[in-house]
Amino acid sequence: MKLAKMFMATSALTLAGNVATAEDMANELTLVSWGGAYQASQVKAYVEPYLEMHPEVKVTWDESSAEAVAKLRAMNEAGNVTWDLVDAVASDSMRLCDEGLAEELNHDEDLAAAPDGTSASDDFGDLLVSDCFVPQIVYSTTFGYRKDLVGDTKPDSVCAIFDLDTWPGKRALQKRPIDNVEWALYCDGVAKDEIYDVLGEDGGMERALAKLDTIKDQVVWWTAGAETPQLLADGEVVFGSTFNGRLFSAIAEQNQPIEMLWDMQSFDLDGWVVPAGLPADRKARVMDFLKFATDTQRLADQAAYISYGPARASSAPLVGKHAELGIDMAPHMPTDPANSGNVHVYDYEWWADNRDDLNAKFEAWLAK
Amino acid sequence: MSDTTDTGGPVLAADGTPLKRSLARALRRQKMRALLLIAPLLLFILISFILPVADMLYRSVKNGIVAETLPRTVVAIADWDADSGELPSEAVYAAMAADLKEAAAAKTHTKVGTRLNYENPGISSLFRKTGRKAKKFDIEGVASWKDELIDINKDWGDIDNWRTIQTYSPRVTSGYFLNAVDMRVGTDGAELRPEAERIYMNLLGRTLWMSLAITVCCILLAYPVAWILANLPMRQANILMILVLLPFWTSLLVRTSAWKILLQQQGVINDILVWVGLVDDSARLVIINNQFGTIVAMTHILLPFMILPMYSVMQTIPPSYLRAAKSLGATDWTAFWRVYFPQTVPGIGAGSILVFILAIGYYITPALVGGTKGTFISNQIAFHISSSLNWGLASALGAILLAVVLVLYWAYDKIVGIDNVKLG
């Protein structure tokens, strides 16, 4: 059976004349990802199936995505890029593209079309935020709260974070200005589509920080995504922001008394980046893998292991049940209509321009 | 031997050459051999340590990117007077258009945008947006590039953007260092940043005093431990020594996380205090995510570096000195303070230098338990290296930190004397 499949796969390759043959491709593939449950979902959803089709390929993982930009820059300066494919968040992919460290892709040529023939660029749509980026998942930074610590009134708005009278207790927020200042302005009465205009004005950042000042004593600042679930589980904080998949695993897999507060969740993307300047044989292998790993079915499969939404529109209807728990995954996706009633769309370009400046102000404010 | 003494001339060796020269030659050969023996290590240190550090430090002033990417503009803009209140001439705009066209083809326009964005937020997207159109620029075919560029993006009509380009066109810049000491290039030379943006000097001061506090805590805790270790019989001392070394064999992250569990408000220490009744349940102590948390966790992590040098020094002090002091009538305190303690100072010195220098560069532990007020300058350096990619600023901060450590080392040498430091 397996042999037959292999035979068919190889003959299909030989038949398609313009496709690079297996001999032209390197058999080593170094993938860079985040480790943990997320990397496990990638292994299950597309790396293992790919290796089954191509048993000659050897995959090496490097769990360095958090420092991907810095390390790629260093590798590039040393003239020895050892990575083949890098998992990075959208803003990092844009920086890699700006720095000339990532390969610019032709999405329609390099990626598989949807089963109904929709081109890749239409299928991914607006999520193709950079020419160097192939999105895999949509995740969100959002809040979870302790059911037993919020009292009788359940919070239903992100502004509960700033309401210490109704919901006293500590809050966990990420130690960076992004998202926090947007939520602060929103809860200070700024309309959602004017947030970045206000933030860009003189005094805009000060206004956001003044709002954050009202809860500053009650904030625990986190740097690693795993901290918030832990703080919530210990009862150390009442509310905490983190990546929605982390909260999902605390709620569904570890049965913690935590509930999601999806209001004003901040959408972000994670996806693949091909380092610039790979030798031809390695690049051929990477592009072959990339085409497979980002097709409609593979992205839908990934959602069976982790509660992040597939980046292709055509994958959404194929999202099934959790591979081990057997629960329906759709209601846990940030993109589910019930969860995405009021979302915050994070402006990559704006932050790329203003990040250093606002970060300095934010750090100075934190230290005060 | 005797046949050369009576000649009265220079002393000769057996082969007739002057002894002095022959000796020098032998010594030189010996030196060469020694040098050859250590050559691999010397080369290794040079290539893997000194050169990379020098390269990293050079980045703090390096600024070739503007002149390399925008060569025509840099020349054209040199005599523009930024304070005149007028935009640069048409020639500058035309030079910029030609430079951008080339840079966009080579995909380097975004790099220079990123560089200038450190000094002037917003300039990065100006370059990125214009770059998208720049590949199709028809340099000869446009009458006024001034109007054309301003038409493409109105920010080309902003004097501040041109001022930034002019200010940062030289190949060497003080910009990163100014930034690292909370200053910037203003209209009339260097000026302090607005109060709300000053962070680094404050952080540097905090790093220094907290490292000092950690060193003092380590001295106070390590001294008795080292004394017990040095004075117990070998067997018990060895068992205790394992306890001292045990933390060395445990991952740094595990030890730091353990402190989180102990110190947090719902943590072990607070639970016990509440249970005993010393602290009210509604007023649990805040002993983590602040400076206290950083000092406690780092003192624990760095303690072995203080105990070990102290222990090895104390071991060499003969107990008979103390006995002699007492038999001559000294009280316990005098015998300790006048006889024992001075002999342990080299150990304290060695331990203090080790702990202080390690503490000043720590960033993982402060990031995890320090909250907002217990983080160090190294956290900012790590941020600029791995996250904001502003390596120039990171190396300027690193250079300042290195200079501070060297100055402190020099001061220590003047006050205590580096010869008095003993590791064993």
What descriptors fit this protein?
heterodimer, A: 368 residues, alpha/beta, ten-stranded mixed β-sheet, 39% helix, disordered N terminus, B: 424 residues, mainly alpha, 3 domains
Strand order, main sheet of chain B: write it out.
Answer: 1-2
- Would you count the extended β strands of chain A for me? 10
Which structural class matches the secondary elements of chain A? alpha/beta
Beta-strand content bin of chain B? under 5%
Q: Give the overall shape of chain A.
A: globular
Oligomeric state of the chains in view = heterodimer
Tell me what the CATH architecture of the largest domain in chain B is: Orthogonal Bundle
The tally of domains of chain B stands at 3
Any idea what the radius of gyration of chain B is? Answer: 32 Å
State the share of residues found in helices of chain A, binned by percent: 25-40%
Q: Which value, in Å, is the CA radius of gyration of chain A? A: 22 Å
Mind summarizing the main beta sheet of chain B? 2 strands, antiparallel
Note the gap between the termini of chain B: 44 Å
Sequence stretches where pLDDT stays below 50 over 5 or more residues of chain B:
1-5
What is the straight-line distance between the termini of chain A?
Answer: 67 Å
Number of helices of chain B: 20
The largest β sheet of chain A comes out as:
10 strands, mixed
Please explain how this structure is put together.
The complex is a heterodimer of chains A (368) and B (424). Chain A is of the alpha/beta class. Chain A is 39% helix and 17% strand. Chain A is built from 14 helices and 10 strands. Chain A has helices at residues 2-15, 36-53, 68-78, 90-98, 107-110, 120-124, 180-187, 195-200, 204-213, 227-233, 244-253, 280-293, 296-302, 348-367; strands at 28-32, 58-62, 85-89, 133-146, 171-174, 219-222, 239-243, 258-273, 309-310, 343-345. In chain A, strands 1, 2, 3, 4, 5, 6, 7, 8, 9 and 10 form a 10-stranded mixed sheet that branches. Chain A is globular and about 65 Å long. Mean pLDDT of chain A is 89; it is low at 1-20. Chain B starts with a helix and ends in a 9-residue tail after the last helix. Chain B folds into 3 domains: 22-51; 64-172, no CATH class; 200-420, MetI-like fold. In chain B, helix 5 crosses helix 7 (123-134) and helix 11 packs parallel to helix 15 (291-315). In chain B, strands 1-2 form a two-stranded antiparallel ribbon. Chain B is mostly helical and 424 residues long. Chain B has helices spanning 2-5, 19-58, 64-69, 71-77, 90-106, 109-117, 123-134, 145-152, 159-167, 175-180, 200-231, 234-245, 252-263, 268-276, 291-315, 319-327, 332-360, 364-369, 377-386, 391-415; strands at residues 183-186, 189-192. Chain A binds chain B through residues 66-67, 69-70, 73, 95, 97-100, 170, 175, 206, 220-221, 223, 234-236, 349, 352-357, 359-361, 363-367, and chain B through 107-108, 110-111, 113-114, 117-118, 121-125, 128, 195-199, 202-203, 206, 264-267, 289, 367-368, 371-373, 380, 383, 385-391.
